[in-house]
Design goal:
Helix content of chain A: over 70%
Strand content of chain A: under 5%
Shape of chain C: globular
Low-confidence stretches of chain C: none
Distance between the termini of chain A: 23 Å
Oligomer: heterotrimer
Structural class of chain A: mainly alpha
Radius of gyration of chain C: 20 Å
Helix content of chain C: over 70%
Number of helices of chain C: 7
Chains: A mainly alpha (about 220), B alpha/beta (about 220), C mainly alpha (about 240)
Number of strands of chain C: 0
Distance between the termini of chain C: 49 Å
Largest interface: A-C, 33 and 30 residues
Radius of gyration of chain A: 18 Å
Mean pLDDT of chain A: 88
Number of strands of chain A: 0
């Protein structure tokens, strides 16, 4: 247990040390929202119905960019082997990375919501929306972090990760966009979307945690 | 004497190529063995199998009395490994690196043990700097401290002299290669130094044991 | 006894499968074009159904093979299952493409559009993307790389487990596609008969293609392994 906590603490410390590296994902998210805001403003007076889509596409793209380097440093510096050599459960290695990615992406997403509030003149920082975004983020970070383990195995992985992750994340995208639409009063509550989001989050967390040791075991 | 490392019919294949074939040997506790052989003879693979980083395709091996198959926490606690890579977090300082690994291994008197190692290796003054700014030789010194922080009984070393200056090599001898009570298996190309530290020799050729000197 | 029978069938697969596939495919074509009656509402274009629906079943069957072969890769670490999974994924992607193409050709006169973001269409397209992603990821690593094989297997398992969720989510979202007509028993007997002939033909074709691919992949793996071994011998 103490070893697992040590891994999590180490990953948070590395997250803080590498904070400038995360800025690229944050900047990307900001530029995306700005570009959407500008481009849509050219064709329509009411951009509010488009907002849920804008937000989730931004989150997923920024998420895959941010997660793609999850294990790169560990593999390049050989520390991944050091972790495998240590008497620590493999799942802990995964949990540490997931928590670090979650913290970074939630920070980016809150910044995007604040920015969207200003650009689209709609209050986006509400408790309901934060819950929806939080649950959705758990869902996609768990899955994308697992898929990022291939960073150690193949070439051109930065392009590959979104190609692999985005089709698998379609349920999350649909549920996230619909739930956000309901929260913003731009679409009707046609199905229990938040529940689907939560089910997806639990599924991807449990499934990934179980499968991760099988990928990294030598 | 009990066996510290016991390999029997060990084989490892990657795809269709046999990197190790039928490797059998026994190292007694406290013995120091030089692992010799040309490039590609299988030295690194043998060390990877013994340190549980690679699963053997055939055969069995036990290290410190525990089979490598199960790769139990007990086995991992008892081995110290030095590979081609220093295996350190470049963004963290030597002190933070060692604290992290000490916690992974559950070292009780971590702070005292870390200070002892850092002072012995001449790193105490630079303990707070990011590892990234240290030279190759200092990387290797921190790596030695990392491999020793949990007081392993068996050392598995791959080219431990890499990057070390004369003073560094002397420290390596003192702390690892000639340290009393530890079993050492070290792959090396520094044939000139073998007589300084090794009692026994294990020579690999094309993944097989070619010569074993002084081994039971 | 059963084991011997199975082994005999397996041993004769290259003599039995090709003619069987050829005859049944021919029967399917004749059935679809000549035997089956002209559909009253939809007209001639409805005949595509006899390829479309069996291909859809084949695409799921191939997915099932990928899933179980991938489980076997994780369980046994035997690369022959990896070759089987890759073969089934290739064939699965092929039939998914056939389903999408025939669906689009049928959709143009019936719905007035080639493509619509309907639940079934979206689900099938995503399945195609998952197949492609799996094949792309696997092809970027060495085929003798056992860990890359396990990675791809995990990807396939995630995809297979994800697919029901994808299906449910797009179903909740919208649906336009005609409900599977065979299951409702609403199909006239001659049409049903031709459909089953098509099902047999396409299934046999899928099995034959998967077997061919798997055998070829297995041989390619062996060749690259032997080549690596030869390089090692030469280097000494």
């Amino acid at each position: 247990m103490s070893a697992s906590l040590a891994v999590i603490e180490k990953d948070l410390r590395l997250l803080w040390r590498h904070r400038s590296g995360w800025l690229s994902a944050a900047t990307f998210a900001a530029i995306t929202v700005l570009t959407y805001s500008f481009a849509f403003d050219l064709v329509t007076d009411d951009v509010r119905p488009l907002l849920p889509g804008v937000l989730w596409v931004t989150f997923l793209f920024a998420g895959t960019i941010a997660c793609s380097r999850t294990f790169t440093d560990e593999v390049e510096q050989g520390t991944f082997d050091a972790l495998l050599l240590a008497p620590v459960p493999r799942t802990a290695l995964y949990v540490g990375k997931v928590i670090a990615n979650l913290v970074a992406l939630l920070a980016i997403e809150v910044a995007v919501l604040v920015m969207g509030t200003i650009l689209f003149n709609t209050t986006l920082v509400t408790a309901e929306l934060l819950v929806i975004v939080g649950v959705g983020t758990v869902g996609y970070v768990c899955l994308t972090t697992l898929l990022a383990t291939l960073g150690s195995r193949v070439r051109s992985r930065e392009v590959l990760l979104p190609v692999l992750a985005l089709p698998l994340l379609v349920p999350l995208l649909i549920a996230g966009v619909r739930a956000t639409g309901v929260a913003l009063d731009v679409s009707a509550p046609s199905a229990p979307w938040l529940l689907l989001l939560a089910v997806f989050a639990i599924w991807s967390a449990v499934g990934s945690a179980l499968l991760f040791p099988l990928v990294v075991e030598r | 004497m009990t066996a510290a490392i016991d390999a029997h019919g060990l084989g490892k294949r990657y795809g269709a190529s046999e990197v190790l074939e039928d490797v059998t040997f026994t190292l007694e506790a406290g013995s120091r063995t030089a692992l010799l052989g040309a490039n590609g003879a299988g030295k690194t693979t043998l060390l990877a199998v013994l340190s549980t980083l690679a699963a053997p395709s055939r055969g069995t091996a036990s290290v410190a009395g525990y089979p490598v198959d199960g790769a139990s926490a007990e086995l991992r606690r008892r081995i110290g490994v030095l590979t081609h890579s220093p295996m350190l977090y470049e963004a963290l300082s030597p002190l933070e690196n060692l604290r992290f690994f000490a916690r992974l291994y559950g070292v009780v008197d971590a702070e005292a043990r870390i200070e002892e190692l850092l002072r012995a290796l001449g790193l105490w003054r630079r303990r707070e700097e990011p590892t990234a700014v240290l030279s190759r030789g200092y990387h290797q010194r921190v790596a030695i401290a990392r491999a020793l922080v949990h007081r392993p009984a068996v050392l598995l070393l791959d080219e431990p002299e890499t990057g070390l200056d004369v003073e560094g090599v002397a420290l390596l001898d003192e702390l690892m290669l000639r340290a009393p009570g530890m079993t050492v298996l070290a792959a090396t190309h520094r044939v000139d130094r073998i007589d300084v530290w090794a009692d026994d020799r294990l020579m690999l050729e094309r993944g097989r044991v070619a010569v074993a000197v002084g081994l039971s | 006894m059963l084991r011997n029978t199975l082994l005999a069938v397996y041993g004769a697969r290259w003599t039995v499968l090709p003619p069987l596939v050829g005859i049944s495919m021919l029967a399917m074509l004749i059935g679809a074009v000549v035997v089956a009656p002209r559909e009253v509402v939809e007209g001639e274009v409805q005949r595509l159904f006899y390829i479309h629906a069996p291909s859809a079943i084949a695409m799921y069957l191939a997915g099932g093979v990928v899933f179980f072969a991938s489980l076997a890769v994780l369980w046994t670490r035997d690369l022959r299952f990896d070759a089987l999974a890759r073969a089934a994924a290739t064939v699965g992607a092929l039939f998914t493409a056939i389903v999408l193409a025939t669906g689009a050709i049928w959709g143009r006169p019936i719905w007035g559009v080639y493509w619509a973001w309907d639940a079934r269409l979206t689900g099938t397209l995503i399945l195609f993307l998952i197949y492609s992603g799996y094949l792309l990821a696997r092809s970027l690593a060495d085929e003798t790389d056992e860990q890359a094989a396990r990675y791809a297997a995990v990807l396939a398992i995630i995809g297979a487990l994800d697919f029901p969720i994808i299906h449910m989510s797009v179903d909740w979202w919208r649906t336009l596609h005609p409900q599977p007509i065979v299951a409702r028993g609403a199909l006239p007997t001659p049409m049903l008969l031709v459909f089953f002939v098509g099902l047999v033909a396409i299934s046999l074709l899928a099995v034959w293609l998967i077997a061919l691919r798997a055998e070829a992949e297995g041989l390619a793996t062996r060749v690259s392994g032997l080549r690596a071994a030869a390089d090692r011998r030469e280097g000494e």
